Amino acid sequence: MKDSRIPLHPGTLLRIRDWIIRIDSQAGRGTTCLAYYGSVLDGEGQVLRLVVIKEFWPLLPEEKGIFRNGTGLQVTEETRQSLRWQQRRDQFRACFRRQQELSVSAAMEIVVEPYMLEENENGLYLVSRMHDGVRLTDIVPASLQEKLGMAIRLAELMGLLHEAGYIMPDCKPDNFLWIDKISRMTLFDADSILKYTVHVRQEAVYFDSVYISPEINRLRHARNIGREQLGRVLKPASDLYCCGIYLFRLLLGRIPAPGEAGDPDRIRRELCRLYPESFGSSGRTQAVRKMAAILKTVLEVNPFRRCQSAQTLVEELNEELDLLHYRRYQVRKKRAAADFSYVSYDLLEKAPVCDYLTEDLRYPGTGRKRADILITGGHVFGRSLLETLIPGIVMLDTDIHLWLAGNDMEKLWTGMCRARENPLLPALVRVVNSRGRILSDYDPEIVSRPAAVLHFTGPDNDRAILAAAARSGARIFFLLREKGEENEALAERIRQEAAPDKSVKIWVIGSKDADLGNSALEDPASCISRIPLYTRDGDYNENRVGSRIYDMGASIHGQYLRGSRPDITEEEILQDYASSLYNIQSSERSALRAVYTLESAGISRHDPAAPSRFHQLLHDPAHADLRERLIALEHLSWTAFMVLHGANRPADREAIAAYAYKDGNNWQDRRDPDHRIHPCICSSGPRRQIRTEYWDLVLNRPLAETSRLIDGLGLDRLDAMSLWIAAVRREAGRQGLTAPADKADLCHDFKDSDEDVILAVPGLLALFPPGGARPAFRILRISSGSAYEDLLSSIRTGPDELFLVRMPGAESPESGSDDLRDRYAGFLKEAGCRTALRVITPEALEELPQDGLYLDMGCRPAEGERALFRRLTAGLPAFHLEGGNCCMDTRAGDTACGAGCALPVILNRKICLPVSLLLRMQGYKPDSRDRESFTGLTDRETEALRKLTADREAFTALSGLLGQLEKDRIRRQPLTGVTPAGGFPVLTDFTDGTAFSHSGLDRVFALLQNDDLLLEGYSYPAEGEYERISFTAREEGVARLLSGLVGLAGKEPLRHQFRVRILQDSVSVADHSLYMRGFLPSDPEGISDHSGTAAALAGLREAGREDSLLRDLRILQSDTGTEISFRYSSRSVRRVLCSGEDAEPALRYTQAAEGRLYDDIRLASDFTGEGKEAGRDRIFRTGLIASVDGTLQAI
């Protein structure tokens, strides 16, 4: 159809509503309109903002009925009454509604925001925000990485459109914009967007002749198209075919013919020819095969076999990008959630709520405070804000009142409380309506008091919000409307009406244009500040790295990771920290808690000596009540955080095992409710109530009696849960469940964990003082020649620099200063310490900077050099380490401010290091032999082993006995290779499915099935069921072997862990459980005389003393022999006791435990001694850690 429409000339002025708009240039032509770029002018002709104007002028056959008349249109009455005119006008109006719906934050703003739809005597106009972008047809990515990035963004945009219920039949590059300023792709033309969930008319559907799916192309040529036919083909899969055409054209430079991508070999050859550096030349690399498979799937002619989900296409393209360039595109929704979370924590740290508390009028004269915060608006940032506010500011030890204004906030809260999202959220807070009636209340079993009180205030118009602000007395406001201009105007009115004697803080989501120009937070001290939510697409918020809250969170996450991965590097910590939104949120909550806990203790966060003062307060017996209250508040904050992120509690005490023993617990995976429970989500108050006798009382009773016993002690819920978990873990260990005994306890006493968090606050604040970097911190010490002694204080404190003085005569031909620096620097890096190391001579002491310099007195100079060294270091504050204690010389230096007050706090922090590192620092070198990893002994087990080996005869007899019993537990069945017709069918007695699974028999059967030793499959009961097991073995011996194992597991459920080994001529099944049962006949085989039997039994009794090495030991003697049963305390204990040669090196570490530097040491590598202890000496290997701790003492 010929287009003879006449556009407006540049410079034309239009009055649309109250705006005067100047036409600057023509933007394009559409089926329903002419588009222009324009400028909104003020009364003096100055440009206020840039806009896009769409003038309704449809392209119709009746074009003679429409005329250009000055700046408007003249339309004949006949044309106005025509069906096509009315349909196009309705479509144009619907375009405005769709733009409104898709330009909001919930839809990720995939369309430019419309300002108004206005009809006057001149015509019908749609005015939108200036997009400042270029069409995709004008973008030619240069590299393969850029091309994949464009394709991913297009697929992601279509996915967001589909999530909103729309499709785009006219899906072509002309209808998409690339905004380089923010690296974001948006929709340009919303005219052809349709709801695919409702019936549409044929006249409302537009197609492109090139970017069109085969099914729509066939329908386009049909004469009569019914609504049902349209509904069958207008699906997201048709949009994805168009995305495939765009991807094909990007990669290969042409439009594909239908079905062409179905020949992957041809596609691979063409890709290798065009991109040999990326795909190679053979066409066999994984990357090129995957790329051809993606094109084949997305360009499949059959719509039912085509890729059905844009999210799937995004993930496939992301994997391809990762294969080729080792990077992934962060999808918009996840990136927005991460940005929103960071911004929430950052603004609460920079402008703390504690600066805007008001007196609680319910308790006049008591000095009690309360926080009143008003939130309004429908921006999706509101959810992140609530998830941050409630657990974050509850540490203020004051009542928190959140005033939620408007239907949008009420809907948000209702949506967050859905059982699938946050099942316990209603039990966390008290909800009050606008009339003061309590709609729902907190559950005292979950929290000891409401984490917050939520007030629904009613309408969200300006007048209602101003009334709610006056009624609530709120001093903090979050204005989260979608239109930033409305927020800014309302913020100004709130500021004007605020009481002059009470400062207010107003956070607003401002104009998008303003935020794009400056994404940094404005001065938090100002009354009105914008919330920076609009950052470059594809990147994390550029303000994160380097901000205090982010770096504090990274430090906390590093301490957490080093507890389980002591050899992790700083780079790996930062990568793991940024890889998960849950990691960031959890760690930043802990960082925010440090700031608010300080205020709860009555100490100003601006006080330079705040860390030291807080440390002294926590350890002052006179303030024990405050310390306990802060610990209880930490548990309340942690509980609120977990609940707000979807965590649930076990339905009953018995369900705790589902949390304790189920592999793969992942708090980020909300799809699996079984992994989202935590037994410690329960209320708790100050003061620990568990006494030592309670532990002994509970842990020495059968589990069946434990629950009633704990309930009778009258403890608070957290203390009672701690006792119950300890009892469950003990029972699990006795029964041989899958919970490894060598892992840290799930919860010995959860209040200990809360207390550790509070005690760590001073050290965290000392490392990250408010308002900037901490003062310079340097350590000076004389080198002793021992890396362990020279570096321990630096590893514990993490100074900026370490100066090691190499005294005359300390030089050795094997190691010069450079070698010493390189070796020591390697140790520091391995320990996660970023200290810069310098090895200097005594003459260089005079040139050292004195600010922040501390003298480590751990090594003293020789007698003849003391006077010179004392003169050169006069006035320096000094300290030294004695075992686990750090002693600070309070007589030297000014400890009232600066680094002087921070140093004791830092020195007092607890660190965790690999035992292998600590031992290598003491002169042991790793053995080159590779040995199987296994768990080392605890201090308690090592001490028991030392007593046991005191009687060498009894220990040797015991090792021989246990070694023989272990061999007897291996069942070996030769394979004959003879299989009769039909095999050997077996139907066992009724068997417990739980025992079958937990004993490992399910894995044994699966491996035998894979090796064709079982025929025709097998059936077995699921966990919790009680059914027969049926199978058909290939050989009779295998049938007997399996029948015996099933019978054994049925008689002694959960006391076996079977593992199978299949060789060419035999099958071996070994029982690897820690539970042992054996029988010694009167003349036992393997022990030569009765004295050997007596010595072995004496060794058993000694090993079972106090449950240190053997637990639940039973020895029953009769005329026929002796029956014994017990459970090894750990796998390391079993290995040591069954192999006597392993006991000797295990005892080496008793000395380390006595030095109080290793807490519950577990050994980390194989070593060979040097010097006097030269020779081969095996030491156990684990991945576990040693803890170095200490307390402060003044000299």
Describe the protein's architecture and organization.
With 1195 residues, the chain is of the alpha/beta class. It has seven domains: 13-129, Phosphorylase Kinase, domain 1 (2-Layer Sandwich), CATH 3.30.200; 136-329, Transferase(Phosphotransferase) domain 1 (Transferase(Phosphotransferase), domain 1, Orthogonal Bundle), CATH 1.10.510; 333-543; 620-761, no CATH class; 775-909, Alpha/beta knot (3-Layer(aba) Sandwich); 925-966 and 1076-1187, no CATH class; 976-1064, no CATH class. The protein is built from 41 helices and 43 strands. Strands 14, 15, 16, 17, 18, 19, 20, 21 and 22 form a nine-stranded mixed sheet that branches. Strands 25-24-23-26-27-28-43 form a seven-stranded mixed sheet, with helices on one face. The protein has a six-stranded antiparallel sheet with strand order 1-2-3-4-8-7, with helices on one face. Helix 24 runs antiparallel to helix 25 and helix 34 (952-968) packs across helix 38. The longest helix has 21 residues, at 624-644. 41% of the residues are buried.
